[in-house]
Write a structure and sequence with these properties.
The complex is a heterodimer of chains A (278) and B (233). Chain A is α/β, with parallel strands linked by helices and 278 residues long. Chain A has a single domain, classed as 3-Layer(aba) Sandwich (Rossmann fold), CATH 3.40.50. Helices cover 33% and strands 23% of the residues of chain A. In chain A, the strands form two sheets. In chain A, strands 6-7-8-3-9-10 form a six-stranded mixed β-sheet, sandwiched between helices. A four-stranded antiparallel β-sheet of chain A has the order 2-1-4-5, with helices on one face. In chain A, a hairpin with a 2-residue loop joins strand 1 and strand 2. In chain A, 46% of the residues are buried. Chain B has a single domain, classed as Phosphate transport system protein phou homolog 2, domain 2 (Methane Monooxygenase Hydroxylase, Chain G, domain 1, Up-down Bundle). In chain B, helix 4 runs antiparallel to helix 5. Chain B starts with 14 loop residues before the first helix and ends with a helix. Helices cover 82% and strands 0% of the residues of chain B. Classes of the chains: A alpha/beta (278), B mainly alpha (233). At the A-B interface, strand 2, helix 8, strand 10 and helix 10 of A face helix 3 of B.
C-alpha cells in the first residue's frame, strides 16, 4: 500500500537550483527514508520489505551480486522504474520527510532534485556547453549569464573545468571516457540536485579516471547526498560512509562502511565481501 | 533487517586466495612450534646446565627469523593481490603481528641461552629453584597463546591478560628476593644478576604471549583489547 505524506507546496519547476526539499542547517539522518518497500516487475518480486534511512550529505554504497535489487532500489528513488511497463510497489520512500509518491509531487521536479549518473556515460550528441545547459533550456531559461554561470559552476564541481574550458563548444563525444562520465556528473549537478544517484559510475573507466571520479565523489558529498551502486568493494570502502548489502532482493545488512568491511554482523555479508559467495 | 539464511559455500571463490591464506597460517604455526621448541631448549640449557642446548637455541634462532620474513612477505602479497576484507583481513593482519611476537619470544629464548651459558660457568645457586615456576608459567602462556590462535579460542585468548599480571608479580617477587640476598652473598651477585635478567626475559615473554592473545581476539571478533588494563583494573 502506498502511503502519502502531508501535502507540501509543489516545487517550482521552472527554476533550476530550486530543490524539492528545503535546505537543512544540519544534515538529516533520514534524509531519504525507505519504509516497508516491496517492488515488482510484473509478477516477479524484485525487492522485499526494504527499510532503511540514508543520511544527508554522506555517501551510501549499495553492494551485492547482480540481480540482488540494488539498482532497482536506486531507480525507485527518482521513480525511474515507472518508465517500465507492469511495475508496481508497496510501501513508501520519503525524501526529507515527504513521500516521493505524493500526488502533488511532480516527477520531473523530483528527478531534477535527484540526479542520476549511469554506468555508461551518455552525453548528448551536442557541445559540452549544451550538454550542461540542456535541462535549463528545457525549463525555459535562456539568460546567457545564468547559463554561463551554470556551465562553469557545474564543470568546476565535476573537476572538469580546467580540462575543457577552452573548448566548450566542441562536441561532448570527443571527450575521453573519464571526461564524459564527469561531464554527465556536471550535467547532473547543473540542476543543484539534493541527491546524486550513481549506478556503477566507474565500471567502464580506467584506474586514473576512476580515481578522479572517486575524488569528485568525496568533494561532492559536502553539498550532495550520494548513493552509489558498485561491484567494486575497494571503491565502496574508499568512497562511502555507509554501506548496504543486498541479496536476492533483501537488505541483509546496512551499517557504517568500516564496520561492514572489517566486521560485518551477518554471515551472508561476510561471505559476499570475502568472496565466499558463488 | 532480513536475516533469512541462504546457503552460501564457505570456501573462497578464488582457490589461489584460499591457498595463500592456508600457506600463511601454516607458516605461522610452523614458526610457533619452532619458537616453542627454542624456549623449551633454553629451559633445558638453563636448568640442566647444558651448554649444548644453549648453543642450539642460539643457532636455531635463524630459522625463526627466516620464517618471520617469509610470513611478512606472504602477508604483503595477499594484501596486494587479493585485498582481503572482514575476517580474511583480520586474519592476515593478526598472523603478521603474531609472527612479530613469536620472533621476539625466540629472541628472548636466545637471551636466556646466553645468560645460561654464563651461569653454567659459575657454581650453581639454590635460587634457581624459584625461577622454575616462573619459567613454566611463561612457557605455558606461550603454548596457550599459540593454541588460542590455532583453534580460534576466544576465551583462552582473553585469559592471557590476567595471567600476564600474575607473571609480572612472580617476576617482581623473584627480583626483590635476589636483590635482598645480594647484600648477604656478594660472591653470588653476578649469578643473581643473570637470574634477574632471565626472569625479566620471561616476564617479557608473557607480554608477548598476551599480545598474541590480543591479536587473536581481534582476528576472531574484531574487538580491540590492547591497552585496556586501565579500564579493566
Amino acid at each position: 500500500m502506498i502511503k502519502s505524506m502531508d501535502p507540501q507546496p509543489p516545487p517550482t519547476a521552472s527554476a533550476p537550483g530550486t530543490n524539492v526539499t528545503s535546505e537543512l542547517a544540519h544534515p538529516r539522518a533520514d534524509f531519504l527514508k525507505v519504509t516497508d518497500f516491496n517492488f515488482y516487475y510484473g509478477k516477479k518480486q524484485a525487492l522485499y520489505q526494504i527499510n532503511m534511512e540514508i543520511p544527508q550529505r554522506q555517501v551510501t554504497a549499495f553492494i551485492g551480486p547482480s540481480g540482488c535489487g540494488k539498482s532497482t532500489l536506486l531507480r525507485n528513488f527518482n521513480r525511474m522504474n515507472e518508465l517500465i511497463d507492469g511495475v508496481r510497489h508497496e510501501g513508501d520512500i520519503l525524501l526529507n520527510g515527504r513521500s516521493i509518491y505524493d500526488k502533488k509531487m511532480e516527477v520531473i521536479a523530483l528527478r531534477r532534485s535527484i540526479g542520476m549518473v549511469f554506468q555508461k556515460s551518455n552525453p548528448f550528441p551536442k557541445s559540452i556547453y549544451e550538454n550542461i545547459v540542456y535541462s535549463l533550456r528545457i525549463a525555459g531559461i535562456s539568460s546567457k549569464n545564468i547559463l554561463d554561470e551554470t556551465v562553469e559552476r557545474s564543470l568546476r564541481g565535476a573537476a572538469l573545468w580546467d580540462e575543457v574550458k577552452d573548448r566548450l563548444q566542441d562536441s561532448a563525444l570527443g571527450l575521453s571516457g573519464g571526461q564524459m562520465q564527469r561531464l554527465c556528473i556536471a550535467r547532473a549537478i547543473a540542476n543543484r540536485p539534493e541527491i546524486l544517484l550513481m549506478d556503477e559510475p566507474c565500471s567502464a573507466l580506467d584506474p586514473i579516471a576512476t580515481a578522479k571520479v572517486e575524488d569528485l565523489i568525496h568533494d561532492l558529498k559536502s553539498q550532495f547526498t550520494i548513493v552509489i551502486v558498485t561491484h567494486n568493494m575497494q571503491q565502496a570502502t574508499r568512497c562511502s560512509d555507509r554501506t548496504a548489502f543486498f541479496y536476492l532482493g533483501k537488505l541483509i545488512e546496512y551499517d557504517d562502511t568500516q564496520k561492514i568491511f572489517t566486521n560485518p554482523g551477518e554471515k551472508q555479508t561476510e561471505d559476499y565481501i570475502t568472496g565466499r559467495f558463488g | 533487517m532480513s536475516t533469512d539464511t541462504v546457503a552460501m559455500p564457505n570456501t573462497h571463490i578464488l582457490s589461489t586466495f584460499e591457498e595463500a591464506l592456508r600457506s600463511l597460517r601454516d607458516d605461522a604455526l610452523m614458526m610457533a612450534s619452532l619458537t616453542e621448541r627454542n624456549l623449551e631448549n633454553a629451559r633445558k640449557g638453563l636448568f640442566e646446565r647444558d651448554e649444548d642446548w644453549c648453543n642450539t637455541v642460539i643457532a636455531d634462532d635463524e630459522e625463526v627469523d627466516t620464517l618471520e620474513v617469509q610470513i611478512d612477505r606472504e602477508g604483503v602479497n595477499i594484501m596486494l593481490r587479493y585485498h582481503p576484507l572482514a575476517s580474511d583481513m583480520r586474519n592476515v593482519i593478526s598472523t603478521m603481528k603474531l609472527s612479530v611476537n613469536l620472533e621476539r619470544i625466540a629472541d628472548q629464548a636466545v637471551g636466556i641461552a646466553r645468560r645460561s651459558r654464563k651461569l653454567i660457568s659459575r657454581p650453581p645457586a639454590d635460587e634457581m629453584f624459584h625461577l622454575e615456576p616462573i619459567y613454566q608459567y611463561a612457557e605455558t602462556m606461550v603454548k596457550d597463546a599459540v593454541r588460542a590462535f590455532a583453534s580460534q579460542d576466544l576465551e583462552l585468548a582473553r585469559g592471557l591478560k590476567e595471567r600476564d599480571r600474575q607473571l609480572d608479580q612472580m617476576n617482581r617477587s623473584f627480583a626483590e628476593k635476589l636483590t635482598d640476598l645480594m647484600s648477604h652473598r656478594v660472591d653470588f651477585i653476578p649469578t643473581y644478576m643473570d637470574l634477574i635478567f632471565i626472569s625479566r626475559f620471561l616476564e617479557r615473554i608473557g607480554d608477548q604471549a598476551t599480545n598474541m592473545g590480543e591479536d587473536t581476539i581481534y582476528a576472531i571478533s574484531a574487538e580491540e583489547t590492547r591497552h585496556t588494563h586501565h579500564l579493566t583494573g
